């Protein structure tokens, strides 16, 4: 296993005194949540409880209140309840609490409903994209993603039904959070009675306060007659938690999945009881680690029953989520292998050991090549500290970092970069346009996106026919595309399918593309999965293959047995049906006639091209390695091994997304005729590029 230096043995000199190898958390109060303590008692033991009166006073008297507090101190679950108890939800008003992650929205809402003893979906509800569990008349506390709240602004620009909006996890600086903060600041000017609460684990509170401090000319009224002060209040909730001892590896580890697995095994071997939380990056490496751990536990002759290994990533079913939060069975040790969702969004009770890979999946966008990737990249020091802190909730804990201290000190940046500065801005621009914000460069951003990225986005939207020469939304196309809660390229594909007479098929494809995967990958059964895929494989590519799977699923009577037999993920297919139904309703609302093209797959491919022409690629002549170049910017890309077109290598393809590992891989690929590109977007490709496309 990886070599860690341990207390008591000689260790390399510390490079950074301030860090000191040990993080100190004030150990102020005893742990809660254990034993048979009533929910009321548990609530009172949370650190925020001491601040209940102050929080309510500040919200009453200030337009914006910024609350900073350690993860697990009760911000998300308690503050909305305090606000409700104080009357902020009286008279039909609603308290909103936003989260960047869907899974956190669901988990937190169900916890709060449980604490209040109400049925989820009634007094306490949640809304995430494609799933609305609220009641128009009954819901008083509503959890939702920040993206959904942005969408709600399209119907109700001033968000009039909300009395308080709590923007939670603000330190994450997700793209939607940043857009939301900018827009809420505007709304505040028109609705002085609206209160904002901005909550976070580590936020740089001063800069956030400066952002919300409106200029002098808007002041003057404040303070009197129930008009709140515009200067934001800052409240810091004293953390709880215990010392966490940090261990670094002595040498960089070649394979963090393997290193994580052996570290877990040796903790299980040598350390007293207590659950383990492992931070990896995404579904793939998490599943791999789960598999290795299960095998390893068996090989060592130790019954794997001693370890309860659970994955945690977005896209888990409710039942799988519930397992994560249920108490560890007596005499067992829970190992949760998670993405950075467990960094600050969710609190797991009972964690004493943290294993930190030092990586997370992050979005990176290069406006020059116009390529956006999800990349496994080093986390920031701030994230590393948060991860370590998760070990100190119930008693003193230990954090095993799978990177060297030198790496921590020298290589890791202090803070992450806000997502808006490393993302493709197409969706962001269209949303702001739909909300009537015309001067996007001049928009009041918490952190400004790069002008290059902005220009790229405008260019793509223009070529999609969504924006006109004055950069205004076109009618009806622009407004229709904005109305569909999907990536504008998918929305455009749906609109095009209307003219081409294949909207039934395209809506199915859109639904499938909006979930992670419809395949069921079983440990060690990659070969069987590949064979199963072949049963559905279409020469045209993955999109048409999806249609075959969907058809098979319907013909089976939506049978879970059928799914099992064909390595199709039943849970994912149920979700597809649900999303499809909603997309169908949206399509009909914006005037699309939902119609099938039966077996004419050419029109389906044309519709895909109409949305995704910007992702066209051409196979390099004489390339034996299957190398493609993007038509747009001549980037080198390859077909992903999971695609049915892997090794088939048609001359012209369009991809849905890129993943980058050792190379740039295209996921979900369809073959096209290059002449369709010119049909779909005559102005898009520059002349020299057009020349390379045979007419
Ligand atoms: P914060 O938002 O400050 O990170 P939370 O309000 O999410 O804190 O959590 C406060 C406490 O509530 C946690 O420390 C935990 O004890 C409890 N809790 C939260 N969510 C759950 C859940 N799903 N199941 C059990 N306990 C939970
Ligand atoms: Mg929280």
UniProtKB/TrEMBL annotation:
Question: Which top EC class applies here?
Answer: hydrolase
What keywords are annotated for this sequence in UniProt?
A: ATP-binding, Helicase, Hydrolase, Nucleotide-binding
> Where does the Helicase ATP-binding domain start and stop, copy by copy?
56-221
Catalytic activity annotation? ATP + H2O = ADP + phosphate + H(+)
Instruction: Please report the stretch or stretches of sequence annotated as the Helicase C-terminal domain.
Output: 260-436
> Does Magnesium show up as a keyword for this record?
no
One MF term in GO for this entry? ATP binding
> Which PROSITE patterns does the protein's record reference?
DEAH_ATP_HELICASE (PS00690), HELICASE_ATP_BIND_1 (PS51192), HELICASE_CTER (PS51194)
Matches recorded under InterPro entries: DEAD-box_helicase_OB_fold, DEAD/DEAH_box_helicase_dom, DNA/RNA_helicase_DEAH_CS, HA2_WH, Helicase-assoc_dom, Helicase_ATP-bd, Helicase_C-like, P-loop_NTPase
Q: Which SMART domains does the entry link to?
A: DEXDc (SM00487), HA2 (SM00847), HELICc (SM00490)
| Signal sequence residues | none
Q: What is this protein called?
A: RNA helicase
């Amino acid at each position: 296993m990886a070599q860690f230096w341990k207390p008591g043995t000689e260790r390399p000199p510390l490079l950074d005194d301030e860090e000191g190898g040990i993080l100190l958390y004030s150990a102020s109060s005893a742990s809660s949540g254990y034993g048979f303590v009533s929910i009321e008692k548990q609530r009172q033991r949370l650190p925020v409880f001491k601040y209940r009166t102050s929080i309510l006073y500040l919200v009453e008297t200030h337009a914006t209140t910024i609350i900073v507090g350690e993860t697990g101190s009760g911000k998300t679950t308690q503050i909305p309840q305090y606000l409700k108890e104080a009357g902020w939800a009286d008279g039909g008003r609603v308290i909103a609490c936003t989260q960047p992650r869907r899974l956190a929205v669901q988990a937190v809402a169900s916890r709060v409903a449980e604490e209040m003893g109400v049925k989820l979906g009634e007094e306490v509800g949640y809304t995430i994209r494609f799933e609305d569990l609220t009641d128009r008349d009954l819901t008083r506390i509503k959890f939702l993603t920040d993206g959904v709240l942005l969408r709600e602004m399209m119907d109700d620009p001033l968000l009039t039904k909300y009395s308080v909006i709590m923007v939670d996890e603000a330190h994450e600086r997700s793209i939607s959070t940043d857009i939301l903060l900018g827009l809420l600041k505007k709304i505040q000017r028109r609705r002085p009675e609206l209160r904002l609460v901005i909550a976070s684990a580590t936020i740089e509170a001063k800069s956030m306060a400066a952002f919300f401090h409106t200029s002098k000319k808007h002041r003057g009224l404040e303070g009197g007659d129930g008009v709140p002060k515009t200067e934001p209040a800052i409240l810091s909730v004293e953390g709880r938690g215990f010392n966490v001892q940090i261990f670094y590896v002595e040498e960089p580890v070649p394979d963090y999945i393997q290193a994580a697995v052996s570290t877990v095994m040796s903790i299980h071997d040598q350390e007293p009881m207590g659950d383990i939380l492992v931070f990896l990056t995404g579904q793939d490496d998490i599943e791999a680690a789960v598999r290795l751990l299960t095998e390893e536990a068996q090989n060592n002759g130790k019954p794997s029953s001693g370890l309860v290994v659970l994955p945690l990533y977005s896209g888990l079913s409710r039942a799988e989520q519930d397992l994560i939060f249920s108490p560890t069975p007596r005499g067992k040790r829970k190992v949760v292998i998670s993405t950075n969702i467990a960094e600050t969004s969710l609190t797991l009770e009972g964690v004493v050991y943290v294993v930190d890979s030092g990586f997370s999946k992050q979005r990176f966008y290069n406006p020059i090549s116009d390529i956006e990737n999800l990349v496994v990249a080093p986390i920031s020091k701030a994230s590393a500290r948060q991860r370590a802190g998760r070990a100190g909730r119930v008693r003193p804990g230990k954090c095993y970092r799978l990177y060297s201290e030198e790496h921590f000190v020298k290589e890791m940046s202090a803070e992450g970069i806000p997502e808006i500065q490393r993302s493709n801005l197409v969706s962001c621009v269209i949303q702001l346009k739909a909300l009537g914000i015309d001067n996007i460069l001049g928009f009041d951003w918490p952190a400004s996106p790069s002008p290059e990225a902005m220009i790229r986005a405008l260019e793509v939207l223009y070529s999609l026919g969504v924006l006109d020469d004055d950069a205004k939304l076109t009618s009806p196309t622009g407004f229709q595309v904005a109305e569909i809660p999907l990536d504008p390229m998918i929305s455009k594909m749906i609109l095009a399918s209307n003219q081409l007479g294949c909207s039934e098929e395209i809506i199915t494809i859109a639904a499938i593309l909006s979930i992670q995967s419809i395949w069921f990958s079983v440990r060690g059964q990659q070969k069987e999965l590949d064979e199963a895929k072949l049963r559905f494989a279409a020469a045209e590519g993955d999109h048409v293959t999806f249609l075959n799977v969907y058809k098979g699923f319907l013909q089976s009577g939506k049978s879970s047995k059928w799914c099992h037999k064909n390595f199709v993920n039943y849970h994912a297919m149920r979700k597809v049906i649900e999303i499809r139904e909603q997309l169908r309703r949206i399509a009909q609302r914006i005037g699309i006639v939902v119609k099938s093209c039966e077996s004419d797959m050419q029109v389906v491919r044309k519709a895909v091209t109409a949305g995704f022409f910007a992702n066209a690629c051409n196979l390099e002549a004489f390339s034996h390695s299957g190398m493609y170049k993007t038509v747009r910017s001549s980037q080198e890309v390859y077909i992903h091994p999971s695609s049915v077109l892997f090794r088939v290598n048609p001359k012209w393809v369009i991809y849905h997304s890129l993943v980058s590992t050792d190379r740039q891989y295209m996921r979900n690929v369809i073959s096209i005729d290059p002449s369709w590109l010119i049909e779909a977007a005559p102005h898009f490709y520059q002349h020299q590029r057009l020349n390379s496309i045979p007419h």
